[in-house]
Amino acid sequence: MTTHEVLGTEVQMPVQIRHASCFVAGFTASAPAAQAMIAGTGLRVMQVRPGRTMCMLVFVDYVDGDLGPYNEFGVCLLLEDPDTPGKSTILGNLRSLATGRARALVHRLPVDGDFTLAAGRGIWGFPKTLADFDVDHSSATKRGVVSEAGKLIAALTVRPGFKVPDSDATAVLRAYSYLGGVTRETPWVLNRTGDTRTRLGGATLQLGSHPIADELRGLRLSRHALMTSSVGHIEMTFEDAVVRGGSQQHL
Fold first, then answer.
1. Exposure check for the chain: N or C terminus, fewer CB within 10 A?
2. Per residue in 174-200, is it b (16+ CB within 10 Å) or e — as a string?
């Protein structure tokens, strides 16, 4: 068991999240543009059809956890398995996506708390930045707005989907980060989910004038989301990160 000091406070690993909720929309994106955007990470984006990858936009409300309450907005790109480079197929990638075994690079991660920002960057190398949030996780239609210094990053609306059975099954997901020229892999253990809904389509996205919004426009996202989901209750655990490499080019 390891510990990390964050802003004068000791954080013991693994970090426990006892209650969070989220909603997410998955858009197809230009695979060449996405690959160019993550050059230097040593990772390759997953292709769901020739020339197209998946970009997931997610709002999360951490209600009760070891890092305290906070909101975050994630821009995540789905990846090929870095342990078997060049061996994936589009059919295999679609199967990984459908079964929830896909790996993801957390490319941008605005949050609204200083402590979680310091912990995220210092422990896992997540590219957290400070932002302002206006989010509704409780209504049937979910809506999140994230901005920084008065500039809109994104406004995302997710309409209700079909109910999915609650699950107590443990799943180990793999999140990747790239900060300061270093690529890291973090095991993310999903312990329990409840009040989950999912559907095809169902999202409305507005991009603003912030540089992250410009970056998303450069990915040439699909006009309509491929899928959307919302989860009312999540319990999860974050393990220590493992360094995988990188270009050593400081951001």
1. N
2. bbbbbbeebbbbbebbbbebbebbbbe
Q: What is the pLDDT of residue 243?
A: 96
State residue 250's pLDDT score.
34
Torsion 237-233-106-59 (CA) sign: negative
Q: What is the mean pLDDT of the chain?
A: 92
SS (H, E, C) 27-88: EEEEHHHHHHHCCCCCCCECCCECCEEEEEEEEEEEEEECCCCEEEEEEEEEECCCCCCCCC
**205-243 b/e (C-beta count within 10 Å ≥ 16 → b):** bebbebebbebbeebebbeebbbbbbbbbbbbbbbebee
CB count, 10 Å around CB of 134?
11
pTM of the shown model: 0.93
Tokens of 153: 């990053």
DSSP state of 25: E
Distance of CA 21 to the CA centre of its chain: 13
Query: Token pair of 174, please?
Result: 């793999």
pLDDT at 83: 77
Burial of 79 by CB count in 10 Å (0-12 exposed, 13-18 middle, 19+ buried)? buried
pLDDT digits 0-9 by tens, 104-144 = 999 999 999 999 999 999 999 999 999 999 999 999 999 99
